[in-house]
Amino acid sequence: MPEPELSVAASGRPRPHSRRPSRLPWLLLALSAAGPATAAPAAPPVPAAVPLEQLMAGEYAFQAGQLADAARWYLEAARAAEGDVLLAERATRIAMLANDDARAGQALKLWRQRAPDSLALQTATASLALRQGQVRQARRELLRILATPDPRAWRFALVALAGGRDPDVVARVLGDLVDRGAIPEQLQAWQEFGRLSLRLDAPKLSARIIDEMVRRFPDEPRVAVLRAGQLHQAGQTDRARAMLAVAEPRAAADPEVRGMLAAAYESLGDFAAAARVMALGLQDTQSYGIRASLLARGDDGPTLATLYDELSAADGGRPDPARRMLLGRIAEFLKRPAEAVDWYRGVPGGPQRAEARIRIAAALYEQGKVAEAYAEAHALQNDAGSDDEARRNAYLLEGELRQRAGDTGGEIEALGRGLAAYPDDSALLYARALAWERQDRIDRTEADLRKVLVAEPENVAALNALGYTLADRTHRYQEALELIDRARTAEPDNAAIVDSYGWVLYRLGRNEEALVELRRAWGMLKDPEIGAHVGEVLWVLGRREEARRYFEESRRLDPDNRSLRRALDKLQVTLPPPVPEPEPAR
């Protein structure tokens, strides 16, 4: 899936883009006459014995997203580089990223010969064993890791477990570690293993781990929060709330506990309780902003109005830009756009002034003053005294407002004017690509995303968006896979990219592999598009009751999600009417 686009109207800024520098091959950096190898501190040294042909071919294949070729070339280079530990490690990791278990095993053997006691080696060995379903070997390696006196050892074990493909296998091995008392007596270690069990969707294992945490750390509020999450996952929402209530007395004195409790209540859908917890203890503009957002999401207008009145009275005419921006946002939440405009106009000059002008245009649009909203955006676009980012954002804003108005032609035209002013700007090109995709102009979508990649070959958002678009809307699956693999090399644990990878595997007919990746993405991020993808693959595999569960959860998150609607129509699935959730106790 493409990463969600952040609304300019909502944030005053465009969605973030990866602007990392192009990753030149570390081989060339190391050999450069311009300076020593320290020019690339993460690059391993290049032994004289390494055949340059294999190494360069491997690195270029890696950067091109041709992971199968990269794994082959790197393994050849590692074999030739006798005694080189880092090259054997790199060959192992690239092969694992390519899902080439055979070459990963061969590279791992070289690595073991050169550094037999490395924690990193043991971690990779355990991960590969998990991926191959070799439970005994995986357990043996993990026990070795956890028995190491190094205080970081449990983190290596966590990484090894997270590298497994099949959640059921990983849950089984993690359960064995709990049974054997292998997890160290550290709260943070237990927290992280507990969170992993929740992501694995293994409720019985989660209950066991959290029961152990309650026994070992009975007075720790962080344990109560984790326990509440496990109870909620098991459908015991009332017990989850009771567990959180026990921890609330600690929230006033501990901002970290306060934030954790608020997030836990938010996950339960109890926005009023989350806002109540955030009101405990000392307050600042940030905590007020979180409270306002929670109250707005909970549709608690009266309490939000009380907070607004309190902050308005405290303003006292003092031009605090952050506080006035917050008051303007709350006024928007309360559907008082005229008051919002007044607050934004009261923001003095400075770094927040440009964002205030963006918000003025959005608030005018909410008032129904569409022509004035566009005029405000145009004024900022043409203001030579504003910086380029603010002016560029004004084009993005106008495009978004025209999209909301259903003016698809106007959206494209506004973004086109922005590109005339800022040729080849990646944010504008990305936004226009998404606009073309909504109009089913996939040729234009591809053209704009490729323009981004010409200027920024390693722009992860564009790589993923183009790869996903080709996988979802064309039959060019192999090309899509290479683009998504390029994104995966940069951000292997990005949920949107993992989802794209799973989706292209599904389109290639590799359904079981696809399901593993899509379930992993769902564990990272409960997103309706990811849920729809998991449901579709399960349906095709004949696991229809399980598929319905994912479809229903996706509908609960966003009933109008395009991917969900398309999946239900394509598979001719009819879901029962949604069951309304009970109102939280107040």
TrEMBL record:
Superkingdom of this protein's organism: Bacteria
Secretion signal, residue range per the UniProt entry: 1-39
Disordered: region residues: 1-20, 567-586
SUPFAM superfamilies listed in its UniProt record: TPR-like
Ranges annotated as biased composition (Pro residues): 575-586
Keywords of the record: Repeat, Signal, TPR repeat
InterPro entries in alphabetical order: CellSynth/LPSAsmb/PSIAsmb (IPR051012), TPR-like_helical_dom_sf (IPR011990), TPR_rpt (IPR019734)
Keyword Signal: yes
TPR repeats: 528-561
Pfam families from the UniProt entry: TPR_16
Protein name in UniProt: Membrane protein
Organism: Pseudoxanthomonas suwonensis
